[in-house]
């Protein structure tokens, strides 16, 4: 692998792409440190120390800590992700969008344009509600988070935060086009990884104070390595269905007759299910936090706190549901079967057409169950480590899935550049494939 990184510096184009990517990520991290005026930063920091389980904590996670500073990038890239998911879901139910998705490059450009418009609209709505929510929030010491509440503050937040999200959207697209890897995913990756030094320093501090023993820390590090290896194994895991193509005679030449396979990923839906599930579960608790004097609101907040068994059971159930739901939306066995039949392909022993679609759907249903339980196990891992083993830092969950997945995709793209220029890749045996291969 070290030879692969050395070879990457020998290719001018790949070297320029890597430097451009790091430059754009540096611009993003500088913007995270630029605060929005009108906020008491000390009071906001104390509030976010207790806000890990509500909507603000989720947005803060994907913005790389920008929301807890209420910087110009406070919304992060979350509006773009939400708009992309909404457009992807609407593609199934809106005939016009479905036609666009099948029109090739021009259709994809049109959908991308609609995604940008949706991002701006969601940014305006989210920034307005966040600014109004912050006006109602006080830190544990009783200090108000907003110095001068009112419409002047709200409009300033809408303009600032929406402009910041639009700029990040442009940065992500530039990284995708001129850098290495998926730009939007790398922005989320950079935001999550930027919080690691703080977690490491906190762990060292607790070990010096005697709250964590050296032996337990070594066992925990070994466990972390095993978990990351398991995620890599599952993210690359796929069920390959053999496909045979019949021979065709065109003029005086005979084509076809090759053997191929249809790869079905164990985790087809990626990190979308835990994002959907956590967004739904934290919404009632966030609403309840605005009514601290209501006993029903307090009871609902206690039931849906991340430490409660009810929350964990609902979380696992929603993850399993959204794994099947998102897989059904993004993968159509009937369409795959029709395309195979159109090009003369068939699964040995299975009749083309309806029988093939049923066979693919049956296999996809089975492997999706394993993928759903794998995602659920990773996502409830932080709760188990913190509540049962008194771990003082956050490990696992959606953030770990994103970090490992984005790292796999980026390294796979770098290896593709190396192999196309006859350089040794990162793996001596076989080829490293990203999640979308």
SSE inventory with pairings:
Elements (H helix, E strand, L loop, with lengths): L1 H7 L3 H21 L8 H8 L6 H8 L3 H4 L8 H16 L1 H7 L3 H31 L15 H28 L4 H11 L2 H13 L5 H23 L1 E8 L1 E4 L2 E4 L2 E7 L6 H18 L5 H9 L5 H22 L2 H10 L2 E2 L7 H35 L8 H24 L17
Antiparallel strand pairs: 1-4, 1-5, 2-3
Brief digest:
The protein is mainly alpha-helical and 437 residues long.
Describe the protein in words.
The chain is mainly alpha-helical and 437 residues long. It folds into 2 domains: 1-194, SecY subunit domain (Preprotein translocase SecY subunit); 237-395, SecY subunit domain (Preprotein translocase SecY subunit), CATH 1.10.3370.10. The chain has 18 helices and 5 strands. The protein has helices at 2-8, 12-32, 41-48, 55-62, 66-69, 78-93, 95-101, 105-135, 151-178, 183-193, 196-208, 214-236, 272-289, 295-303, 309-330, 333-342, 354-388, 397-420, and strands spanning 238-245, 247-250, 253-256, 259-265, 345-346. The strands form 2 sheets. A 3-stranded antiparallel β-sheet has the order 4-1-5. A two-stranded antiparallel ribbon has the order 2-3. Helix 9 crosses helix 10, helix 13 (272-289) packs antiparallel against helix 14 and helix 16 crosses helix 17. The radius of gyration is 24 Å and the shape is globular.
